[in-house]
Amino acid sequence: TLLEFPQNFWWGAATSGPQTEGRFHKTHDNIFDYDFDHFPDHYWGGIGPDTASNFYNDYQTDIALMKAAGLSSVRTSIQWTRLIDDLETGTVNADAARFYNAVIDEFIANGIKPVINLHHFDIPVSLVHKYGGWESKHVVDLFVKFAQASFTLFSDRVTDWFTHNEPMVVVEGGYLYQFHYPDIIDGKRAVQVAYNLQLASSKAIAAFRQVNQNPDGKIGIILNLTPNYPASASPEDQAAATFADLWQNRLFLDASVKGAFAAELVDVLTNDDVLWASTAEELAIIQKNTVDYLGVNFYHPNRAQAPKYAPDSLAIDWLPDKYFEVFDKRGVRMNADRGWEIYPKALYDIAKNIQENYGNIAWFVSENGMGVAREDRYLGEDGIIQDDYRIRFIKEHLYYVHKAIAEGANCFGYHLWTPIDCFSWRNSYKNRYGLIAVDVHRQDKTLKKSAHFFKALSASSSFD
Ligand code: BGP
What Gene3D superfamilies does its record include (predicted)? Predict the structure, then answer.
């Protein structure tokens, strides 16, 4: 059966500055640049962000390929470590302004709406060393200077803005589970980082309301909303799933959409004596500066159960893991290369939650996708990668987006991760997500079968 999507639905793809541009002419190092220089063995194949997919030099040909894949909108990010010369005062680097102006103009000239995010995990490493990074409220204010400079330079042409991509991943990767620099394990500090990230988003939104030049301008936040399905109906497992949801999803979702943190979460953190330091003035800023809309990244659900080990027994003062444990459920569909469960119906559950509990605020799928290793295994005789698994993955997720929209969900688009195979943090180029393949060494770029599918999808706004 033919599934039709609304008029003007965004058919696009998402990427980020640090994962595509390469380090050419950058003013500062972000935490990944630094980490790669000091710990190259953290990176799959020893390949770091130096060249990435060479977007800094290749942006014109890359954007032509994105057009050939039928994308009507593309999200990327402006790198704080490229745009800003003096991090304290927020002065703009001239080459970076030229580059981002050229990129934005090139997107528009090709009929692609540029969607711009500001922070995609890529804090300047010097701010981590000097001030403790996101633990510092001074750093929050420096981020707002960067945000303000971006709005001032580009909001005449860019109408769609986001403050952060997946702030919870910054908390988890940097302060809980050691997969992003600075690789700290400290729950109390993680709580402060989470709060400061929310404050940074709200303050950036306040700055946007001041300097935005475009009447159509909108701003939001991109969250990885991960449904937590309890292992069983036992009260212990139910409570574990409820807390996991509060911590992973509702922390940023409630504050960004409703302007206040969930009281249940604040109660737990208060009782455990790990609540963030906040002021009444800051909480008023958070309350006032809620988002216009949301981006939702979805890759996989979580399965949650009551924790088997109290973190107290691990000699760590406090971790959110005190209340839940995420486990691998047996017998489910998996993307084995990435180790993530495939469960498309979760997207429907997310849609229902936003519709019923968040005032049916407008949102779009800002990332969804399938990272597959060694895709040259699927190279056809025509030289095109036959990624039928990706086409199936997209269709299955869109099936549930369509169903939710038919039931009133306020979803306005779908962005695949990612247009062109890109550098992916510590997995580097192991898993490929793109509609367009990259030969990392030669920088040849070729449309995959999924790009041809996506072009037809975008042109008709429907599939069967
Ligand atoms: C999201 C990030 C992206 C991208 C994607 C794929 O969490 O926003 O930057 O990396 O996940 O995940 P990975 O690269 O870890 O396979």
Answer: Glycosidases (3.20.20.80)
